[in-house]
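Recall the central idea of this unit: under ordinary conditions, the amino acid sequence of a chain determines the structure it adopts. In this exercise we apply that idea directly, starting from the sequence alone.
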Amino acid sequence: MKRLAWLLLAAWGCFAQMTAVRFGTLVDGRGQTHRNAAVLIEGGRIQAVTSASQPLPSSAKSIDLLAYTGLPGLIDVHTHMTYVRKPRPGGAAWPSSARVYLARENAAKTLETGVTTVWDLHAAGDASLTMRDLIREGHMRGPRMFVCVHGIGRSAQGPEEIRQAVRNQVEAGADFVKLFASTGSYNDVSGDPTFSYDEIAAAVEQAHKLGRKITVHSYGPAAARDAVRAGADSVQHPAELDDDTIREMVRRGVFYVPTIDHNRYYRDIAPTMGWPADTGKKLEEFIGRNLETTRKAFRAGVRIAMGSDAVNDMFGQNTRELEWFVKAGMTPAEALATATGNAAEMIGMADRLGAVAPGYLADLVAVEGDPLADISAVVHRVRWVMKEGEVVVDLRQ
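Accordingly, the structure predicted from this sequence is:
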């Protein structure tokens, strides 16, 4: 059967341009490691994974990455691509059009981490929609974006207003829905609920009715507990989840996005932000609670996905979350899965993203070293990135 598939591909190569990317080792995102592998690509999709020692179709273009380990394109399920910390004369906020222009650097830095797909969880105006569409149409270089447009906050009150707010976001072009169900952000690590259970349930019901996934922001355990009970697809940030909520997450298949590293980022920049003197200590304490909750949830079998919550100049550090996951008890392979197969399943793209396999989009990453032995190969040594069959990063010397 494999020989027949190869012969068909060779014949097809006579009529269509094909690219063969050859890796010394390929970690395919499906639990298999291939030595001396070739990935055959045509039309932006993977046609076959085979041996690099096989003769290639005569018309195929070959890319030699035999000195590197290949991975699927990575997925970051929590970004704010259009958040930029660049002051405007007079101190006024930048309009959406300017934010998109200034965010080009965020997009480029994200690609350089090997992240080829993001879920973007809130933006000012229509900035995220504009950026998503510019990238989609090839007018801007950046990761594939799926956006919530605006996260729904306390401007909507009561189940009916919440349902309308969900409808508004979907009508505006949202790929999924985000609900801000607790306090907590930047230097604020409180987690006080901002919506009742009935309001969260209304948001979940309306999002699912419209065919959209819904993710819920909750720094504390209470709003996360209500979100899980209400049927949310994923929860972002929560620390100190109780045992009953964790068991329910396992039973329902709710994804947990810890975002541990974004508070490390805030801790590091705290001295430059004019925040209260005790901010660093509070952030450090929250990081500890967040890490312990991640360890506890992972041991219980909760599905975990990688989200950086990158803003401003945190882009380019998107995958540092993986190092925290290893600290939480994951093997490097398990940590890598949070940014490949798990993340693809969470965003509803498991049939086209998160793996190197026939029919999948040709998103590939080459790293220096063995990521299954040392996750820092992924975090710090990305050398080459392909998105949908196009080379978008080449940092090889």
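The chain has a mean pLDDT of 94.
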